[in-house]
Amino acid sequence: MNLRQTKIPLFFLAPTILLITLFVIFPVVNTVYISFLDDDDQFVGLDNYAEVFSRKYFWNPDNLLEGKPPPYGALIHNGIWIVLHLPLSLFFGLALAILLRDVKGGAIIKSAVFLGMVIPMIVGGILLRFIYDDNAGILNGFLRIVGLGDLTRTWTAYPQTILLALILGTVWIWTGFSMIVYSAGLEGIPKELFEASKIDGASRWRTFWRITVPMLRPATIIVITMTLLWELKIFDIVWVIQQGGPGGASMVMALQMFLEAFLNRSFGTASAIATMLTVLTFGFAAYMVYRMVKS
Amino acid sequence: MKNKRAVSTTVWAVIIIIILIVAAVAVWYIMQPPAEEEKELTVFSLWSESEEANFKEALAKFTEDTGIAVNHVGYSTEELLITVPTQLEAGEAIADVVIAPWPSWILDLASDGLLADVSDYMDAAKFPDTYLDVVSSGSAVYGVPFKVSGKPGFWYVKSFFEDNDLTVPTTYQQFTNLLADIMEIDGVEAAIASGNGVGWPLSDTTEAFIIGLGGYQLQEDLIFGDTMFTDSETKDVFEELAALLSEGYFSVPDDWQTQVSRVYDGTYGIYFQGSFVTTIEPFSEHTEDLAFFPFPGTDGATGAVDYAIMPANTENMDEAQQLMEFLASAEAQEIMVEQGGFLAPHSDVPDSAYSAIDLQVLQFMRTVTVVPDLDDAIGNPFQQTFWDQLKALWVTPDETDLDDMLQALQDDWTAPPF
Questions:
Q1: Hey, are the CB atoms on A262 and B86 less than 8 Å from each other?
Q2: pLDDT attached to residue A26
Q3: What is the CA B186 to chain-centroid distance, rounded?
Q4: Could you tell me the fold of the domain covering B40-150+304-370?
Q5: To the nearest whole angstrom, how far is the Cα of B280 from the nearest Cα of chain A?
Q6: Where are the domains of chain A?
Q7: Which residues of chain A lie closer than 8 angstroms to B200, CB-CB?
Q8: What are the residue ranges spanned by the domains of chain B?
Q9: How far apart are CA A273 and CA A281, in angstroms?
């Protein structure tokens, strides 16, 4: 490659590199730098990280180990979010995509399911608050109809139930995304493969596991990547429902970072949480991209 | 070929002419002297609906007197807490005047040099020291007390009490008996309504118990750190509160304004709130059927003061000063109290300006020691923790470890900046 061949691409890339450096790389590096400073801008090493981990709102595994209800701390809550929300979103998205593929009017039902993704998350949060309300909520209304009126309560008011209520509520919101990606993935599978398996006498179950699932691998990687990143960054829904409460039972990392920075004005600890969040999201994203490229 | 070249030359000529015309128009536009802009002040506050209507009436008087227009923007608690410091730290004073009820937050901003000293814009002798001390640093005062929400006690509907032969308690024993009696009434879900929101309705109720059971001095000692949250004196109060919660006397927290309707329709019996609750429907429509009783035996009460503060780098300094002077006047404060629901901190506002129910609140407040609101005085991170821990205590009193909870409060306590 001669000099001219090197310079021309660099010339055209320069504006993009400049903008990314200014608006992405510099803020990230600066955030990491601030995470090592105290409020007087003095270098304090890992003190901010230690401070964050000493707070029960961020790290409180004792309740989990003792089998008690939340709060477990923001970091563990994000982990629980991933463990429950990711498989459920994947399952319902795939199931709906397959079930609605050949159904007349399936597109209309898909559009209805996808509404959860279209509405702003803040609005989604307010909707969830009403759904779980003891007096006005559709969930409690349903429980009363089926004779389970004793179970009714405002599900987002209790530390025991709020985290699960939020996770299940956001499955509804996020399923639309995985359904759409899987629907597109299903369209990309050659019909000849299904016809050949039918001729060979394969059962529907075997066809699903041997053809559909492997052929949807790229779509699955995209859904997992995007869902993981969303779960790690979750903020608005939690904020609008109980601001991380009650008693920190629904606190998540992004919200804790926000409160540290803008309510407590403690930018060192906020940057420490932001740095941990960046490392986690970048780590997951890099791994999934690697898997996608490899596949 | 020749023809093609001619076309090309014409196209280029047209393009150049267009560019020249656009450039000439742009230069002409830039050279125009800026139009004389009419000055308009921006005020941020937490007020909406009737409170905003009250305030706009006062602002209209200011505009009438000075010709200076004022744009009012109502924010939620979280928005105001977060937006204003962020804007001021970024060097942008979007609001020329902000009205906020958090003394420690105000002094935090002042200590960073973000607020102007407003002591020259008011007559300090006309305001109680209690209200000024918490927003003062040395000789500088950073907030003009504009209005007060007295927290006199538990509000109730008189006809509900009469219909059910309930009597106002004067001792704590009578108070707990009253709660038990209310619970016996058909259709009542809980004796005491609990308001939700970001958490302040629960903290106000808790402070009534702190002052009522421990005395106003306990509230002051907790603010200044002379008594710890983990001390037995404090724990006794929280144990009593938790016992009442365990009995189911308090409702599950719900939107604080919605709870007003539920008290009025008899779903709940009584409701601890500030005097502003009389401006909320349906209370506002039936103030003659409304009354309050103080926490039995209390020697104190909190008064949440709304302070007008002025960013140090407001672009409209002269006009903002005029507005501050107006807000600090008895004239402006009289307009506010005439609309009902609030008390004026200015001593020159006559009793005749108040409605009958507000006058009762004012007279009660004169009989007790008025102390600062606990969480507003200490500020964050304590305030956020206090609100959040109370939300959990309210719904899980039996599962809450009070020692852990009080330790969490103590851990986040910091000395108030006044």
A1: yes
A2: 95
A3: 35
A4: D-Maltodextrin-Binding Protein; domain 2 (3.40.190)
A5: 21
A6: 35-294
A7: none
A8: 40-150+304-370, 153-301+372-412
A9: 12
> How far is the C-alpha of A20 from the C-alpha of A92, rounded, in Å?
37
Q: Strand, coil or helix: what is B283?
A: helix
Protein fold of B153-301+372-412: D-Maltodextrin-Binding Protein; domain 2 (3.40.190)
- Tell me if ipTM is over 0.90: no
Beta-strand pair B153-157/B290-293: antiparallel
Q: And the tokens for B121?
A: 């814009």
Tokens of residue A288, six digits: 């999934």
Answer yes or no: are the C-beta atoms of B98 and B44 closer than 8 Å.
yes
- DSSP track, A41-91: S-B-TTHHHHHHHHSTTT--HHHHHTTPPSP--HHHHHHHHHHHHHHHHHH
Q: Output the pLDDT for position B4.
A: 56
Give φ, ψ of B115 to 5 degrees.
Answer: -120, 155
Q: Which tens digit of pLDDT belongs to each residue from B121-146?
A: 999 999 998 899 999 998 999 999 99
Residue A157 to chain B, least CA–CA distance (Å): 7
Q: Which residues pair with B293 in a beta bridge?
A: B154
A281 contacts A232 by C-beta, under 8 angstroms: yes
Cα–Cα distance, B61 to B338 (Å, whole number): 14
Query: B136-137 and B140-141 as β-strands: parallel, antiparallel, unpaired?
Result: antiparallel
A249 interaction partners in chain B (CB closer than 8 Å):
392
**How close A13 comes to chain B (CA, Å)?**
29
Inter-CA distances, A238 with A124, A164, A249, A252, Å: 10, 12, 10, 8
Query: Could A246 and B82 be called an inter-chain contact, meaning their C-beta atoms sit closer than 8 Å?
Result: no
Nearest of B192, B189, B190 to residue B156 by alpha carbon: B192
Q: Tell me which of B216 and B12 has the higher pLDDT.
A: B216
Residue with tokens 């869902």: A227
Strand-pair category, B268-273 with B153-157: antiparallel
Q: Provide Rg for chain B, Cα atoms.
A: 27
Task: Give the best residue of B250, B384, B398, B412 to mutate against chain A (max A CB count within 10 A).
Answer: B384
Q: Are A78 and A231 in contact (CB under 8 A)?
A: yes
What letter would DSSP give residue A199? H
- CA–CA distance, B361 with B344 (Å, rounded to integer): 12
Yes or no, beta carbons of A263 and B86 under 8 Å apart: no
Given a cut of 70, whether residue A1 has pLDDT beyond it is no
Nearest beta carbon to residue A157 from set B108, B252, B389: B252
Let me know how long chain B is.
Answer: 418
Work out the pLDDT band at B53, boundaries 50, 70, 90.
Answer: confident
* Distances from the Cα of A34 to the Cα of A37, A254, A272, angstroms: 5, 17, 8
Our CA angle for B317, B319, B321, nearest 5°, is 65
Rg value, chain A, Cα: 23
Please report the sign of the dihedral spanned by the C-alpha atoms of residue B35, residue B39, residue B45, residue B50: negative
Tens digits of residue pLDDT in B81-96: 888 998 998 888 889 9
- What is A35-294's CATH number? 1.10.3720.10
Chain A residues whose beta carbon lies within 8 Å of the beta carbon of residue B253: 157
Please tell me whether residue B169 adopts helix, strand or coil conformation: coil
Residue B13 corresponds to which amino acid? Answer: A
